[in-house]
């Protein structure tokens, strides 16, 4: 599939300091990619280059085949920063209508995106009365206008309550299903773990990982956890046979590497009625992030 966002060998140097170093990755239409990294890793700089606010020191980026900053690229991309600000005297409806006019989007879309972000009841209130979470939802509403080809999201759930976050990710998934490419930067690893198709990790300006989460889990070779719920009368036997450690009375937890997983599960199955249940926990995105942030590299 042709990439909608193509980042090829991009480097950026400020005052003789490399902020980005030979970064390359793509985001395809309909793909939800997460861009992760510590503060100062280069995420915001990369976003600014994609938006055309900065020119890279080396390499190139194309957005829907166009150079960032050109009219064709600007028409293809929508952006939601971590902190949004709108004219305080305008209402939410007036604000979204203004952006709709700028984008050449039909006025009928205004009410729809306001409803999508659950701001219908507050649409005629002035933005100066909005909470941070409401402003963030209003920002998402303007970003959704016109079904953009590329959606850039920088800490987009900042200020949102748990229910609003769930609704936000549901909307993002719907946009991806319609073909929008999504590049999302967030420190909320647990909330994006099941909501992204691909993970890219920056460390000190270098891309140290770029692959689907399941691939990173295997390539990192981190241990996975197997939790065995034993029959109360046989917990000692299960513990002796399987090793690991006992937790919560009748539960035995052990760790193994991916190549050993099926062998360990087969051994557990052989215990028959001594085992009531088995749960397998692969390395989390938080585990993966810590691993690659420490200096390991995996790019596909």
Automatic annotation (TrEMBL):
The ABC transporter domain is annotated at 5-229
Recall the GO molecular function terms of this protein's record: ATP binding; ATP hydrolysis activity
Tell whether Nucleotide-binding is among the UniProt keywords: yes
- Pfam families linked: ABC_tran
ATP-binding found in the keyword field:
yes
Q: Which InterPro entries match?
A: AAA+_ATPase, ABC_transporter-like_ATP-bd, ABC_transporter-like_CS, P-loop_NTPase
- Which key words are in the record? ATP-binding, Nucleotide-binding, Transport
Name the domain of life this protein comes from.
Bacteria
Q: Which CDD domains match?
A: ABC_DR_subfamily_A
Q: What SMART domains has UniProt attached to this entry? A: AAA
> Which family is it part of?
Belongs to the ABC transporter superfamily.
Q: Under what name is this protein listed?
A: Cu-processing system ATP-binding protein
């Amino acid at each position: 599939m042709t990439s909608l966002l193509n980042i090829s060998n991009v480097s950026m140097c400020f005052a003789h300091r490399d902020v980005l170093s030979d970064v390359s990755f793509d985001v395809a239409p309909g793909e939800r990619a997460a861009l992760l990294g510590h503060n100062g890793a280069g995420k915001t700089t990369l976003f600014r280059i994609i938006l055309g606010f900065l020119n890279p020191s080396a390499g190139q980026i194309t957005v829907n085949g166009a150079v960032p900053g050109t009219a064709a690229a600007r028409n293809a991309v929508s952006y939601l920063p971590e902190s949004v600000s709108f004219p305080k005297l305008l209402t939410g409806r007036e604000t979204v209508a203004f952006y709709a006019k700028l984008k050449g989007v039909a006025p009928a879309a205004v009410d729809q995106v306001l409803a999508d972000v659950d701001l219908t009841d507050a649409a005629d209130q002035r933005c100066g009365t909005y909470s941070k979470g409401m402003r963030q939802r209003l920002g998402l509403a303007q970003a959704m206008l016109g079904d953009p080809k590329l959606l850039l999201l920088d800490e987009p759930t900042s200020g949102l309550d748990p229910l609003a976050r769930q609704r936000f990710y549901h909307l993002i998934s719907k946009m991806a299903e319609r073909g929008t490419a999504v590049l999302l930067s967030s420190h909320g690893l647990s909330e994006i773990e099941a909501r992204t198709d691909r993970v890219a990790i920056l460390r000190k300006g270098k891309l140290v990982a770029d692959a689907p989460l399941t691939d990173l889990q295997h390539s990192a070779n981190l241990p996975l956890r197997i939790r065995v719920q034993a029959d109360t009368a046989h917990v000692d036997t299960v513990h002796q046979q399987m090793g690991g450690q006992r937790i919560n009375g009748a539960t035995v937890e052990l760790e193994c590497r991916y190549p050993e997983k099926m062998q360990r599960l087969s051994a557990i199955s052989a215990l028959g009625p001594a085992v009531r249940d088995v749960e397998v926990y692969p390395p989390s995105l938080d585990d993966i992030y810590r691993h690659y942030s420490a200096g390991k590299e995996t790019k596909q």
